[in-house]
Amino acid sequence: MSGPVRVLSIAGTDPTGGAGLQADLKSIAAHDGYGMAVVTAVVAQNTRGVRSVHVPDVRVLRDQLDAVSDDVVVDAVKTGMLATAAAVREVTDWLRTNRPPVVVVDPVMVATSGDRLLDADAEQAMTELLVLADLVTPNRAELAVLAGLAGPTGPSGSAGSAGLAGAAATDPLDAARAVAARWDVLVLAKGGHAAGPTSDDVLVAPDGTARVFSAPRVDTANTHGTGCSLSSAIATLAARHGDWEIAVGVAKDWLTAALRGADALEVGSGNGPVDHGAQLRAALPEPRYTDVWWDDVRAVLDETIRAPFLVRMADGTLEPDVFAGYLAQDVHYLRAYEGHLAAVGRAAAAGSEAAAFWAAAAAGCADEAASLHHRRLAGTHADDPVHPTSAGYLAHLRAAADSGEAAVLAAAVLPCFRLYAWVGSQLGVAPVGHPYADWITAYGDPGFGASSAAATAHVETLARAAGPAVRGAMARAFRDSTRWELAFFRMPYELGGAVVGGSVVGAAVPGASRTSATSSAPSDTVQRIQV
């Protein structure tokens, strides 16, 4: 099949997510499977141990199983903790009726601590389940129990304490061969609890042939749920690849990566879980907060590029006086913006690349206000007052500065880089003789594009170093600055805010709600500020 394989886990729960159904579903998802789950037992456990186990009536178990098979095609089944003989028999009966292409049995008979998890009757019932299995994945202690059951007394006999002691002394490979031959099943003899520099798992076939899958042993105490995770990964991979050796090999590599990432999870104070997403995370591009923020404001960007000011600039029909009025407000903005850029630079480490970048950006901002704008204004709007939209935008930047977090201010000033560079890419190259060719060229200048990329990279560094609270404030500051940029471009037309004859005409500002204590989007009431 081309889509995700459909894998059913039949097992107990783990509310901390490291083992049981929760671990199975993570493992299945990590291998692009669609996970389903039938609960056999509700287990109150954490990384330090099990507190209690509630086993639902077997009728509830069968109802769950039938609910799945009556409606969904199941490509693979993995069984885990079955808890009681009645549950084992019910699952066995259901499998006889609904035999999926892949069945993996993780017997869950003996805990890592050595405690027996199934009584003798349930162990005997387990042998009936093995007849229907394609692969069984016991730990060392469980392999010894199964070897005892496969011994002279056979699956219908009883492995008493003496038999169990003898089976425990059996070489794991010999035990795996005995189990594989007795029930005509593949056996994965796992080496996670052995000693040595490598962890060697051996896949044993009913005819006694074996293949060793070796990986460096990972030095970690956080191995909770490794058996559950490995078996469900193998079930998913076998259903996809149609080959058991490939499935075991890929799952082995994945589990090694999950073990390497386990300590960094910092889940619980005991034997913690593995990192089911470690390998997938390593294969994906590292997520960038600034890109997420950019995607968040996509609708605002779409509105921005449709603003009449930019549309008429692009086609050359923008009225010169409207453009001059806009430039007058831009000069007001840049004079204050320069100070905010300089403040971000002063907050950076002295002598750092970031400090030098923001200082240079502040100096460039001052030059821009004094040169290109003034040449374009040519005295026609030099004395225009601060428009309410300009005032509102600068009040927003001042609030970001007053937050006490330089990272928030950096995020607030970023849209003036990134949005303008984006506008330049949208406007393209102005034809010869275009009345606004110099301005369009300034938007799309490669040097400015490089500065925008550098500013984004510096803000990204700050976002990565910040905690969630500050990072959230940064996201809101960026979002609101982008909204103010839209309002700024709308100002000459939609807001009736063209500056004519030194007075502001029609200063209505689009409504929006305040989203944080330190950052506000355009609102109906805007305070005038000194610049």
In short:
This protein is α/β, with parallel strands linked by helices and 531 residues long.
Blueprint (SSEs and pairs):
Elements: E1 5-12, H1 20-30, E2 33-46, E3 49-54, H2 58-69, E4 76-79, H3 85-97, E5 102-105, H4 120-130, E6 135-136, H5 140-149, H6 161-168, H7 172-183, E7 186-189, E8 198-204, E9 210-216, H8 226-241, H9 244-260, H10 262-265, H11 278-283, H12 289-296, H13 298-305, H14 308-315, H15 320-347, H16 353-370, H17 372-377, H18 388-402, H19 406-427, H20 437-444, H21 446-465, H22 468-490, E10 499-500, E11 503-504
Parallel strand pairs: 1-2, 1-4, 4-5, 5-6, 6-7
Antiparallel strand pairs: 2-3, 7-8, 8-9, 10-11
Helix proportion range: 40-55%
Poorly predicted ranges = 153-169, 495-519, 523-531
So how many helices? 22
Coarse shape: elongated
Fraction of residues in β-strands: 5-15%
Overall structural class, as computed from helix and strand content, comes to alpha/beta
Q: Distance between the terminal alpha carbons, to the nearest Å?
A: 65 Å
Task: State Rg.
Answer: 33 Å
Sheet of most strands: 9 strands, mixed
Query: On the 0-100 scale, what is the average pLDDT?
Result: 86
